[in-house]
Design goal:
The structure is a single chain. With 91 residues, the chain is an alpha+beta fold. The protein has one domain: NAD(P)-binding Rossmann-like Domain (Rossmann fold, 3-Layer(aba) Sandwich), CATH 3.40.50. Helix content is 34%, strand content 15%. The protein contains two helices and four strands, in the order H-E-H-E-E-E. A two-stranded parallel ribbon has the order 1-2. The chain is globular.
Length: 91
């Protein structure tokens, strides 16, 4: 995977994004078999549970999953999620 490191971001920060995308890509598209996002509306009503949705990788997974399905996520009481529309979602 090749990614350009944005100005002002360190190598370590850039590496964490690539690891998160690789992890969610493997889980959503290889293990679960979701089709790759093509810009159309979500095409499946199949339930998808993302455990740990408030973690860095979990937040990425929720955002990518919403391109294809309506995901449900779990996180601890002390955490909140920020939805792709900018809304804060309490977990």
């Amino acid at each position: 995977m090749l990614m350009r490191i944005p100005d002002g971001a360190g190598f370590e920060s850039a590496a964490t994004v690539a690891v998160g995308i690789g992890t969610l890509g493997y889980g959503l598209y290889h293990i679960l078999g979701l089709s790759l996002p093509d810009g159309s509306a979500p095409s499946s009503s199949e339930p998808v549970l993302i455990y740990g949705g408030s973690t860095a990788t979990g937040t990425l997974a929720v955002q990518f999953a919403k391109l294809q399905v309506n995901p449900t996520t779990l996180c601890t009481v002390e955490t909140v999620l920020i939805s792709p529309t900018g809304q804060v979602v309490r977990c």
